[in-house]
């Protein structure tokens, strides 16, 4: 087990390093010059040359990347080219909003998806099963931004049940925090819940047909004990994989949801940094997203060992 963890951690570090190089190269390919954003179109060539020298833009690419990497290893992601604000501090200021949005959406996706999937499996072929299959298909096919616009229009603007934009800090107003995140969380969680429900249903249906389930029934165990304590654990292995993929999916889609509901999170910071060619800010936000995704994948791999000890021994 420890050997598997060490191997996964080494792969994680290597992947983050490769992604940092790729992001640095891709940002350099974006058309335009960041000095144009800072100085405007009327800047003289001397002003442009002075600013480029002060920002280090004239240094060789490998020198600039090496300087950034040396600082990143020590927790210093540099400063914004536009505002001179520390990148690490900018991410810290906004990370709570995105984490709240993604964590609540993942929680809703897992709880709702597992409940619907298990109920649909034990009532296979019934009315609830058919409604669940139809609902999961609609949930997977429905674009998140479209659902968000519908919720903003009817539940926010028309009925006035929820705020349509903005964010309130949890410590300042817990009720306002929940109200402002309600519609974004529903928007982001709908597709994930549909995928988890569909995968859970398929896994539980297959597991209920295995021999050990018939043996448990023959021993007199009730349906709740057979499904809840035995069949569901076996069926959870592919579901855990789907949940792990949901984290990266939710993190990516949060960019759109933050734009629809005007949430000042990491996604909006990333998009604005790309438009401004604020290279240190882009590198910092993408590095954060990469670390989150690969860490979740590591946790998913480790969960296999708990759900199925044979998988850990094989790894």
UniProtKB/TrEMBL annotation:
Record-linked Gene3D superfamilies: MetI-like
PROSITE patterns: ABC_TM1
Membrane topology: Multi-pass membrane protein
Keywords assigned by UniProt, alphabetized: Cell membrane, Membrane, Transmembrane, Transmembrane helix, Transport
Location relative to the cell: Cell membrane
Transmembrane segments: 12-30, 95-119, 131-157, 177-197, 250-275, 281-300
Cell membrane among keywords: yes
Residues covered by the ABC transmembrane type-1 domain: 95-300
Gene Ontology cellular-component terms listed: plasma membrane
GO biological process: one example: transmembrane transport
UniProt family annotation: Belongs to the binding-protein-dependent transport system permease family.
Protein name (record): ABC transporter permease
């Amino acid at each position: 087990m420890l050997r598997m963890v060490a191997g996964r951690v080494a792969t994680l570090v290597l992947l983050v390093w490769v992604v940092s190089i790729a992001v640095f190269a891709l940002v350099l390919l974006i058309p335009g010059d960041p000095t144009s954003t800072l100085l405007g179109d009327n800047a003289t060539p001397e002003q442009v040359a002075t600013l480029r020298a002060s920002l280090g833009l004239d240094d060789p690419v490998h020198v600039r990347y090496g300087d950034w990497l040396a600082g990143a290893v020590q927790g210093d992601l540099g400063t914004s080219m536009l505002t001179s604000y520390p990148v690490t501090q900018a991410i810290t200021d906004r990370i709570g909003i995105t984490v709240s949005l993604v964590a609540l959406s993942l929680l809703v996706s897992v709880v709702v998806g597992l409940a619907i999937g298990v109920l649909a499996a034990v009532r296979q072929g019934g009315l609830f099963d058919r409604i669940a299959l139809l609902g999961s298909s609609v949930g997977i096919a429905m674009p998140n931004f479209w659902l968000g616009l519908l919720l903003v229009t009817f539940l926010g603007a028309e009925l006035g049940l929820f705020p349509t934009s903005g964010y309130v800090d949890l410590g300042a107003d817990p009720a306002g925090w929940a109200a402002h995140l309600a519609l974004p969380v529903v928007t982001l969680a709908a597709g994930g819940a549909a995928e988890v429900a569909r995968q859970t249903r398929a896994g539980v249906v297959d597991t209920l047909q295995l021999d050990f389930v018939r043996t448990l029934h023959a021993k007199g165990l009730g349906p709740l004990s057979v499904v809840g304590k035995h069949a569901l654990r076996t069926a959870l292995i592919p579901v855990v994989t789907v949940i792990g993929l949901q984290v990266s999916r939710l993190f990516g889609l949060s960019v759109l949801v933050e734009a629809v509901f005007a949430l000042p999170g990491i996604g909006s910071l990333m998009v604005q940094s790309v438009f401004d060619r604020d290279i240190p800010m882009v590198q910092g936000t993408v590095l954060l997203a990469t670390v989150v995704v690969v860490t979740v994948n590591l946790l998913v791999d480790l969960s296999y060992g708990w759900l199925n000890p044979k998988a850990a021994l094989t790894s």
